[in-house]
Design a protein that fits this description.
It is built from 13 helices and 21 strands. By secondary structure, it is of the alpha/beta class. Strands 1, 2, 3, 4, 5, 6 and 16 form a 7-stranded mixed sheet that branches. A 5-stranded antiparallel sheet has the order 17-18-21-20-19, sandwiched between helices. A 4-stranded parallel sheet has the order 10-9-8-14. The structure holds flavin-adenine dinucleotide.
């Protein structure tokens, strides 16, 4: 259904607030389906993922891992001296790539016929938006404003930096604390440690990566410690004070005691909140959850007709491919009459810590909660590369199988390229593969991934 007609009462068929993952996808598809579309953006094209998320993060992970690769190379006969790392080169090359991607997004939108309006958008009435003094009307409005780092509130928090600023650090800190227990904190700690910073991760909970499989959480904690990251769980930052030499005195407390650390930088990654401030939601009575995220139905419709929301701002699964899929589904629904059937089951994810985590399907705890009767397969081993690399790193794999249907309900891995490996396995899981399908698949030798099709003995209950 194309709502655009010559004598249209509105300026646009669709007005999108936010040119991030979800907003760009929704506007591009809507425009290609014949709608008249504009998108407002007040910071950067491509949103969090391109500018201060997935892309720069992964480039930093690549950059930092070379350190270990050079070490590993010695076991294979290579020798070299005078190895040097230059932070500014990595940071600036990353920024150059991000800017190239900003340009690509500009082109993608332009070529699709989407009008880009630079500025902060605010809802002022149903079907009406203000962009810095300009009033615009639209039949449909999509809020795709994403999320923003949450700030802690202890004294001295102004001396800390958030995940956005991490990507533009002027100098690489010699000593650093990363605060948080989510995947972003874990990835940042891995990057900084691998770049040679004296790195401590401080988290108030008993173990990081809540919602990941328990075995995976313990295994990656061990691996990170083997690589030199100090992990301080059940520990809270109480205050930060800046010293004359520019270093930070950080007071941390646990049940046992209070301690003081002196570091050059404290990076906070304690979670993200929906970016809704100043959007005008309250005035229109748009329903929000307690944490501010926007409440929508299965069609991404808010309680106000014609106003939709998706991506991080609705607080479902805060991942780029999810925002993309939601944006595509909404555009096809509004302008092609297609039903929205967003399926949030079995979405594979990776954590780009070192080594990586890759995961799809249920954790063991979740499968037990759902009363499945389970067969669990586990394997941990030293990957072939590290038999002579001299690097102490191990790989872990786990399969969670439903005893009754024989379906594989969950697959978890900690090891090099776990994200790449699990992406392939996710297709099998989505297709409903059984343990017998895994068993009858011939492995690729020698790989680590072949272990997934050769695990024969379940762990004893
Ligand atoms: C450090 C980090 C690492 C991440 N790594 C991964 C990863 O490896 N894999 C993965 O899948 N996901 C990752 N994510 C999550 C991913 O970036 C987000 O889930 C995704 O970007 C959400 O897309 P979105 O469209 O909802 O919002 P965003 O991409 O954040 O886009 C929102 C846009 O709206 C703009 N905006 C906000 N308010 C207004 C306004 N009032 N007017 C105009 N414009 C406005 C913002 O400037 C922004 O550009 C990471 C996130 C972070 C922070």
């Amino acid at each position: 259904m194309n709502t655009h007609t010559e004598n249209h009462p509105f300026d646009y068929d669709l007005f999108v607030i936010g040119a991030g993952s979800g907003g760009v996808r929704a506007s591009r598809i809507a425009s290609q389906l014949g709608a008249k579309v504009a998108v407002a953006e007040d910071l950067y094209l491509g949103g969090t993922c391109v500018n201060v998320g997935c892309v720069p993060k992964k480039l930093f992970v690549y950059g930092s891992h070379f350190h270990e690769d050079f070490e590993a190379a010695k076991g294979f006969g290579w020798s070299f001296d005078n190895l040097k790392f230059n932070w500014e080169t990595l940071r600036d090359n990353k920024t150059e790539e991000v800017e190239r991607l900003n340009g690509i997004y500009d082109n993608i939108l332009g070529n699709a016929g989407v009008e880009i309006i630079r500025g902060t958008a605010r809802l002022i009435a149903e079907n009406t938006i203000d962009v810095e003094g300009r009033t615009i009307t639209a039949k449909n409005i999509l809020i795709a404003t994403g999320s923003w780092p949450r700030k802690p509130n202890y004294p001295g928090v102004e001396h800390t930096i958030d995940s956005n600023a991490f990507f533009y650090l002027e100098k690489l800190p010699k000593r650093v604390i990363v605060e948080g227990g989510g995947y972003i904190a874990v990835e940042f700690a891995g990057i900084l440690n691998a770049l040679g910073c004296d790195t401590e991760l401080v988290y108030r909970g008993p173990l990081f990566l809540r919602n990941f499989d328990e075995d995976v959480r313990h295994f990656i904690a061990e691996q990170m410690q083997l690589k030199g990251v100090k992990l301080s769980f059940n520990t809270q930052i109480q205050s930060v004070a800046k010293q004359e030499d520019g270093s930070l005195q950080v007071s941390v407390g646990s049940a046992e005691q209070n301690e003081v650390r002196v570091v050059d930088s404290l990076i906070t990654a304690i979670g993200r909140e929906p970016k809704v401030q100043g959007l005008g939601l309250e005035a229109l009575g748009i329903e929000q959850k307690q944490n501010g995220s926007i409440v929508v139905d299965d069609n991404f419709q808010t309680n106000v007709p014609g106003i939709f929301a998706l991506g991080d701002v609705i607080g479902r699964m805060q991942l780029t491919p999810v925002a993309l899929a939601e944006g595509m589904a909404l555009a096809r629904h509004l302008f092609n009459g297609q039903a929205i059937n967003m399926d949030y089951e079995n979405i594979a994810t990776a954590v780009f810590c070192q080594p990586n985590i890759g995961t799809v399907g249920y954790t063991e705890a979740r499968a037990r909660e759902l009363n499945y009767s389970l067969e669990i397969y586990k394997s941990s081993f030293k990957p072939m590369k590290h038999t002579i690399s001299g690097i102490e790193e191990f790989t872990f794999m786990k399969l969670i199988v439903d005893k009754d249907s024989r379906k594989v309900l969950g697959v978890h891995m900690v090891g090099p390229d776990a994200g790449e490996i699990i992406q392939g396995i996710a297709i099998a899981i989505k297709a409903g593969a059984t343990k017998e399908d895994f068993d009858s698949t011939i492995g690729i030798h020698p790989t680590a991934a072949e272990e997934f099709v050769t695990m024969r003995e379940p762990v004893k209950e």
